Amino acid sequence: MESMLYNTDAIVVRNLTYGETHAIVNLLTPTGLVAAMARGAKKPQSRLAASIQLCAQGKYSIYQNTGMGTLQQAEVTNSRRGLREHLFLAAYASYFCELVLAVAADRPDGSEGLYRTFETVLDRLTNLPDEALTTRILWEVKVLMQVGASPQWTKCIHCGHEDNTLVAYSPSEGGLLCESCFATKSEHSIVTPAKLPNVLENLRKVPAQRIGSIRLSEEVTKAAALVLRMQLQEYGGIHLKSQKFLDDLESDNLLEEFLSTEKTPVSSDRVSKASKVSKRGVQEKCDDKN
Q1: Exposed, middle or buried, 64 (CB in 10 Å: 0-12/13-18/19+)?
Q2: b/e per residue, 65-97, with b = 16+ CB within 10 A?
Q3: How confident is the model over 236-281, as pLDDT tens digits?
Q4: Which of 33, 112, 177, 206 has its CA 20 to 30 A from that of 45?
Q5: Cα 198 to the chain's mean position, in Å?
Q6: When comparing pLDDT for 110 and 186, which is higher?
Q7: Does residue 129 have a cis peptide bond before it, meaning omega lies within 30 degrees of 0?
Q8: How many Å is the Cα radius of gyration of the chain?
């Protein structure tokens, strides 16, 4: 490979310490994933220190020879510092980054669409922390599309009939079932809320950049999380440790405690003692930005 210096927009999706003062960063760019050595970035006064933080975004200059590139300089345009200051948001951000690492192609074979969608979900997580769970659902729906494991959620996965009577999820077939097919396959299926098919299909079809506030009831949120987790694992082949950690946080209702006091950083002691807070049931709606 011919040596070259190139500039690119990028988001940090992984940061590994190398030696005492260096770091290896994985960057998602509009043309795919790239790894680069950031020499001296771990030094307290390093000019690269801010640019290697998880979820930081900006303009990166990389010198590429054979093997791994070297990060020469960077201008951070969005630090997303808030995603690293709170345990819960950091957990979501880490999971989102792991997901994109699992599905994105290496440069130059990547997708600008995936880059823009990832940028959008990180901004949603930053700006709408109270919708962290639904932002996770949105991101998982988009990831399933990226890996070719997303069914048409309003069509029966068994008979192909499209209607409003899809009533269950079939793990063995990877989609939702209508009432007739469910009657013959109920033993291995999971009953789902009536509104779930339209919610998932709207999230699948509408570009992430056009989706505003997402308001789902607790019943639909839980069902969507379960269905998407099974779909990602069984049909996307994606198994992540950070996913299990997030599931534990959500099942213990610790996230709601954080959201009720989100303006104050949460200490580890407070997390361990967080009380359960009931969710507010709200209307199923996926607002489409004009």
Answers
A1: middle
A2: eeeebebbebebeeebebbeebbbbebbbbbbb
A3: 999 887 887 777 777 665 555 555 555 444 443 433 333 232 223 2
A4: 33
A5: 21
A6: 110
A7: no
A8: 21
> Which pLDDT band holds residue 17 (cuts at 50, 70, 90)?
very high
pLDDT at 280: 30
Contact (Cβ atoms closer than 8 angstroms) between residue 168 and residue 189: yes
Question: From edge to edge, which strands make up the β-sheet containing 190-191?
Answer: 175-178, 166-170, 190-191
Q: Using CA atoms, how far apart are residues 115 and 122, in angstroms rounded to an integer?
A: 11
CA distance 16 to 226: 31
All CATH 2.40.50.140 domain ranges of the chain, comma separated, are: 4-78
User: Taking the complete model, does pTM exceed 0.90, yes or no?
Assistant: no
Residues 262 and 130 sit within 8 Å (Cβ to Cβ): yes
- For residue 211 the two structure tokens come to 């989706």
CATH architecture classification, 86-288? Up-down Bundle (1.20)
